[in-house]
Input
Amino acid sequence: MGSEFGMNRRRFLRLGLGGLVGGSLQTAPPAPVPRVNGGINIQPVRRLDPDAGLTPPLLVPGVVDAQMQALYELGFEHVRLTLSFDRFGPDFVAAIPYVRAARALGMDVLGVMGQFTGYDLVQAIADPATRDEVLETYLDIFDTDVLVASPAIASSGRFALQILNEPTHFLGITPLAYVRDFLRPAYYHLKEDDPRITIVSAAAIGSAAGLLQSREMIEAGLELYCDRVAFHLYSTEFLEEVAELAEKTVWVTESGSRGAASHRGWMSSTFDRIRREVPTTGRIFWFDLYDRGTDGFRLIDLAPGLDGSIEIAAESAAALEWLHSRVDEALAGVPPVPYRELVPDITLYFPTEDDIRILGATSFGPGSWRY
Amino acid sequence: MALLKASLLALLAGTGSEGPEYPLGPLRTPPIADEATPFRLVDLRYAFTDDGNTLSSFETRVRVGGSLFVGGEVIGERRGLFADTQRIELGVSEENGSYEIEGSLRAPWFVLGTRAFHEDGEWAVSGAGSIRFTDDVELLLSHSHDLDQSLFTPSPVEAFAGSGILPPLGPPSRELRGSSLGALYQRGARLEALADARISRVRTEAGFDLDVERYRLATLWNPDRFEIDGELSYQKTSGRLSAKDFTAFLGIDAEVGSYLLARASTRQRWEPGVLRFEEDYRIGATFFGRRHRFARQSEASARLLELQKKANALGYNERRVYDPEGLRRFRERLGLSPARLELKEALDELYRALVRDRNVPQLGFEIELGEDSILGVERRGYRAFVGVPWPVRLPFLRSEDSVEFLFLELIVRHHDYSGGIRAVSRELSLTAFLNRETSLFFHWQDPGFGPEGVILERSPPSRFTLGFEYAMGR
Output
């Protein structure tokens, strides 16, 4: 299996652990890469070809593995990804290994209860007949205990759930309707099933309009029905306003700047400025690790290698170097445990028979998948 | 029944006619200052609405003797009774256990009105008044106070776990208390200016309070062949959701020739340094079958000015108003006054002038474009109407004898939501004016399939209303 997913990551590793391992103190016992670099968004990509339909393979293990390795080696603490409802179809199932592997590696996971396209999820939440089933299934699949990948990892990552993403922008749901008809029922149902789960509100779009939408959501009682208030900050223009809005801890669930040349500066100084000017900020998630846009927000690119493997290319070299340097500093010369030792086979985190049984028992299923 | 029958017969007969011809015959001058012996029907409205649920509404009002109107209404579950004299207006209504009591007193130099609303064991009271300095200048005051100061706290999850029923929502954001002070200046008929300030405390749906200050300047100016109305307001919100925003409205009506009126307007809301978050632009034109007259430049406006001065000299404390319903109330109050016989001729002349000054819209359109960034929606709307005058002739022909008869209006609006959904709403209405006071109407509305409809997989129901209206002296 290892050779099947054997990835050509030479260009990526040269920037980070590859060099570090050679120069480390060989006498110290290896330690897992410390989680020191905050949060990041990832996309639960199924395949690299853009039109990933229902043709096998539904999920290419190497794509998951490559992103997990990057997350681990770059020392991210928190991961945010969309758990696309997809009527519990392939896009939903694809998120399972991402969530479990990240948690096994000690990263907290914030799952966005959302859907890449369509209104199935909001229809299911709005309908009292399906609401409980859908919310419970999310918890049954993602909010279960995960074993750490190695005893050297202190604990597995925790799971939190964000209720929808930019609901006015993507779905046309008004801020008031979001709080009343989606966040509120989701909060009660989820907390009933797991009182310890952290519920994160949706963020509005990261623009001036989004600031005004956030204001409407707060006025409608958003903070009564969540544990963390989310914002998307793609500029520093409204930090003062954001600081005044929320009383609860703020999670900046998306922040970043377009163009690789600006990434490092944003991660270092702008993130600091956000924390300084919005003192209630708990977590900031860079947007994003990988997407299909060039010279946009992604830090790495993924490409099929000649041998069928997945190659990671450093897209944002300065930012990656900065992230690696922070990891190096935290390691203080201790050799890191290689990713492959922790995750010898990514398919260990793939959906299990139990998962399939749970999903199969819902009123949604292959017959209702829409492609 | 006898009363109703007698009134309708009198109405249909067009007694005292001296006005233009309507389908029901020539228009009479309504006996607005005449004592009723003992009753006279002055209002009768019935409407039937169906949008999946049916709603009937019925309103009536009669004049009793020389100085009193009494009336009642049944609108769905709402039942109301009211009585008006020239100086005192009282009303009480009940709907599903909620009560509303209203009253006002019109004294020679001030008007004081109050309203109390009782729901769920709590009262909300408000008062509004004005002090008249001259025929042209009034000081406007208002205050409201919600005696329910309770704070909403959501039910704990345990309560939901026990019942499985989602706990109720908190009350929507509401004004706990508010006070305003303003001044209204009317210069002749052609200029009005209003300035006011309101300070209020708002309890949000979330349970925290906001202090809101609003300052407003508004004007209406009708110099010659055009009319400009504008308003600028500034609102400052303090507290958790602090914000400063402006709202501006500007509308211009311009006569193009004698029969065509063009109109353009815009409304903008913006928060300086943040975003212009609401925009609305409208443009349209109307062709009239008779020579168009602005209400403030007509013969009636001159008579109104004169009559208001006379009324105020008598201590009746009246403001000049130019909308049809406001004018009707103005004439009714003077028709109830002790000096009604003295004012009768002037009241009748004012009515006849209003009839002579009538506008008869026959063809028109309006296009509107708008955007609301908070709701994430862009709007395009089209309105078109056609009026067939009486005596019946083609809508693009002119005649000074014509009156409104049939009026057909169609409105189509496209709402493009951020999520990619386009909702198309349609409205169609047809009104038949049997005469100036009596009309039949039909209205149909299909609200369109917006995000809510898509999410709930339910098309919001279309709605139609059929109705009849009789309003004596309109």
